[in-house]
Amino acid sequence: MAKILISSLGTGLKKEGEYQKAKYTLEGKSYTTTFIAEALTEHLEIDKLFLVGTSKSIWDAAYEAFGGDDEEYQLELIEKKESQGIAEEVLSKFDKQISRYLGSEGSKATLISYGIDDDELWGVFEKYLEIAEHIENGDELYLDITHSFRSLAMMSLVMTQFASSISDKKFILKGVYYGMLEYQSETEENVAPIVNLNILFELQEWIKAIDAIKKYSDFDPLVEIMEKEGIETKVANAFTELNNAINMANMAAMQKFVENASKKIKSISNSNNRVIALLAGEVIKLVDELNHERMSDFQFALAKWFYRNKNYAMSYMALAEAIVTKNCEISELDRTDLSKENKKAMKSISYPYDKLFQKIYPDSITNIRDNIAHQLDERKDSTGRDIEKLPKFIEEFESYFKRERVSNVNKNK
């Protein structure tokens, strides 16, 4: 496991022939330097440093700050920077010096363009992806977004998220650091605090988790964050059970989660993690929507929820089950009685709903449901049509689920 720092390098500001230094503070310690990267490598005990800058960045001063003492090479860096700009191959000696300074191999200086158009921005992005190739499983990653262009700070965050999404490697973003140079004048000591903005990355993770719940009924990202944040085990386990129930199409297990959810929500609402506490509102909304005493109403609400989350297969499965369950409730049939006569009665839906439901009609709910469950070939060309018909089926059966039991209707006659 290595500690890796990716830091951007600016053009610097000279005063009386020297680049200006700043006094940085981090976790009670002070560091006076031109480069926040120098302070962070020492404070965090970094193993690998990736410095990113343009051909006009102050590579000469950075070389000296990281222990470089070859005056001729430093002059070459200054001359090239002030003329045509520094080329990639010139920085190979710089790479070796950083590695010597840190006492480990693998550090690198990377040249990027200014990113003034789409082509240049893609070029910058590709450079960051090259850096990501040097990150291994279990590595701890730190970002410094203090210097250089503000667009580069955004690129660092986006690159990290993108790399973690497409790579099989599992690394941890431990910190996003920013040296608040503009705050110096606010302090008597004229110091610049280094703040950890890792909350930006954490919020992005939460956004993805909430989005996965809303769009795809997927609670996996939420469970992963809860485990990482050390959220109360029974709360995380509850959502694991819900996700398993969804993935296995176990509606009874989902109903059990909804019935017991109020206790879990209380734990979430009282969490010390502010985002988790805010997330409680989303869970409450879900529970309220699915919280129905009768199984048929629960299944029908579930069908609508799955449809809204674009889980069309599960929506059809829930809708078909809801209709059969409702018919049993109306006709006072025992769903646990699996005799041939009773099973036939369960699916004998009355007019005008029979044509929408019964298997004898080609585009009926039962036909579509059976094709999903058994992966039949007979509807291989009808996927789009089946999705298009689903909201119409749900709308048609809204009135069906408002019907009362036959015995109750008869008593009122």
What would you say this structure looks like, in words?
The protein is an alpha/beta fold and 413 residues long. It folds into 3 domains: 3-196, Rossmann fold (3-Layer(aba) Sandwich); 206-290, no CATH class; 321-411, no CATH class. It has 18 helices and 10 strands. It has helices at 36-44, 59-65, 71-82, 92-102, 118-132, 150-166, 198-216, 220-229, 233-247, 251-269, 274-290, 295-308, 312-331, 340-346, 354-357, 365-374, 383-397, 406-411, and strands at 3-8, 14-15, 18-19, 22-26, 29-33, 48-53, 108-111, 140-144, 172-179, 192-196.
In summary, what is this structure?
The chain is an alpha/beta fold and 413 residues long. The protein has helices at 36-44, 59-65, 71-82, 92-102, 118-132, 150-166, 198-216, 220-229, 233-247, 251-269, 274-290, 295-308, 312-331, 340-346, 354-357, 365-374, 383-397, 406-411, and strands spanning 3-8, 14-15, 18-19, 22-26, 29-33, 48-53, 108-111, 140-144, 172-179, 192-196.
Strand order of the largest sheet: 5-4-10-9-8-1-6-7
By oligomeric state, this entry counts as single chain
Please report which band the strand proportion falls in: under 5%, 5-15%, 15-25%, 25-35%, 35-45% or over 45%.
5-15%
Count of discrete domains? 3
CATH class of the largest domain: Alpha Beta
The low-confidence runs, each spanning 5 or more residues with pLDDT under 50, are: 407-413
List keywords for this structure.
disordered C terminus; 413 residues; 8-stranded mixed sheet; Rossmann fold; 18 helices; two-stranded antiparallel ribbon; alpha/beta; 3 domains
